[in-house]
Amino acid sequence: MSEAEFERYSRQWRDHRIGLSGQQKLAQSRVLLVGCGALGTVLADTLVRAGLGKLRIADRDFVELSNLQRQVLFDEADVAAQLPKAIAAATKLRAINSEVEIEPVVVDVRPANIMELARGCDVLLDGTDNFEARFLINDVSLETGIPWVHGGCLGASGQVMVIVPGKTACLRCLMPSPPSAGEMETCETAGVLGPAIHLVAAMQALEVIKLLTGNHQDLLKGLMMFDSWANVFRPLGLKRVVGDDGCPACVRGERLWLAGEYASEAVSLCGRNSVQISPPPGQQLDLASLEERLKETGRVTRNRFLLRFQPDASELELSVFTDGRAIVKGTDDLGVARGVYARYLGQ
Q1: Catalytic residue check, 36
Q2: Fewest CB within 10 angstroms: 95, 161, 226, 261, which?
Q3: What global pTM score does this model have?
């Protein structure tokens, strides 16, 4: 450790649970951060300041004005430049700590590319806002043996979970399958409070530091849920079983999301400046309930066959069908369309 590093991290390594050996382990570690929005920016900022060796940031989105309320690495200049989030974040992070290697990857994380993104990493980190990506990360973790840290936040509530393959419950022990598109609220429809984001990300980052410094005995057990507005924290113990036959993923070895069997499909519609998003089959949307959730965030019209929605301050329009399929009009960029779909329908 150089003299500058010795001083930079002195308040951290003086904690006996970290020490100089733990600080050196951090400097040799690599993390894949999937998603660089609200949770992702706080996570990236915290870990880069802590002296991580390398951070690979994978994100498909670009910076918008509504991000600035809670996404701490971005500013108005990033919005004006319409920068991809991964690129804007990397610029800020390099200015914070030039000793950390930052690798921004502007990509829609999919079954076809996630194994390569995870290659060489010691921890996978959930900065996403949708269940499809989380179940995909879970599959990759189980397939590779790389631990991952899940986090989620909505309104003032949040949850954090550490998954160590072979030792802890996995995401599918908690939730055998994700909710259908449109079934749950999203940050766009229910809102999210910045302080709650910081609580979730702080807990996630601390678990990452425990993992990378070898303090596995102190890792969070099970799922931690909280309502920050009501000041209520509730731990939920989890076992590696679901039903009589064990968890389909971490016990029986299913990798449905990594295999692409449960991945949504996005297809650019030729000559229409539109993208069709098709979720896994078997879904059924309640368009009336979806209308109630979306009407506070844009203009909504509906009949018994489909719902049309145009978000406030956006030129994009979504036509959503009862089977969860949607046509995003106003773009032919598959990543942009997937991001819009996830933002409002929660997949």
Answers
A1: no
A2: 95
A3: 0.82
